[in-house]
Amino acid sequence: MVGRDDISISVIKRLPRYYRFLQSLKENGIVRISSKELASRMGLTASQIRHDFNCFGGFGQQGYGYNVPELHGKIGEILCVEKEIKTILIGAGNLGKAVTNKMFSKKSGFKLIGIFDKNEALCGNMIRGIPVRNINYLENFCIDNSPICAVTCIPSTDMGEITDLLVKIGIKCFWNFSTFDIAMAHPDVLVEDVHLTDSLLTLGYLANTSNTESED
User: Fold this and answer.
1) Average pLDDT over the chain, rounded to whole?
2) pTM
3) Dihedral sign of CA atoms 129, 134, 135, 139 in order
4) What burial class does residue 81 get, using C-beta atoms within 10 Å of its C-beta: 0-12 exposed, 13-18 middle, 19+ buried?
5) For range 174-188, the mean pLDDT
6) CA 207, CA 158: separation in Å to the nearest integer?
């Protein structure tokens, strides 16, 4: 087994896909699968799958393959889906509500404990049973409840001041839906950026390139 600090980020980023795919197999009653069949279904190679799993000790049995429910559970443990990292969300607009309803409705390893917005019209609303608080209460809330993670769904123009405050009061990691570069401003925190526009622009390029090639 490779030391956890030596596992490449590319392997780590494939784990959620394995977890999601195995969940689907489990729901369809598939109990056993070989690395070759799993690779074929996922568009990977069997050697790639075995390499990835060997980074965490390997989970297959010679001549049997993988036990799907067991493998799903093991990857879930690696991803810490049973843990509940205290998390707050900044920005209760349409994006913030969508993220809350989609991502915090199932086991993710994170527990949403507070939602904040500067828009008074949104304050007092309930999202999944959590009240939207005015951003002015953010610092005291964090001091009292010690969240570790923040989800940021606000314009980039508002991010600098909010990020500085969050880091100062103990936020260690960010799930960032803005274009603000948190890692540049605060290199010591963990950041996972989600740039939806970048993804759409990439798709647009690929779609237009494909159409051009077809016309040729």
Assistant:
1) 91
2) 0.86
3) negative
4) middle
5) 96
6) 33
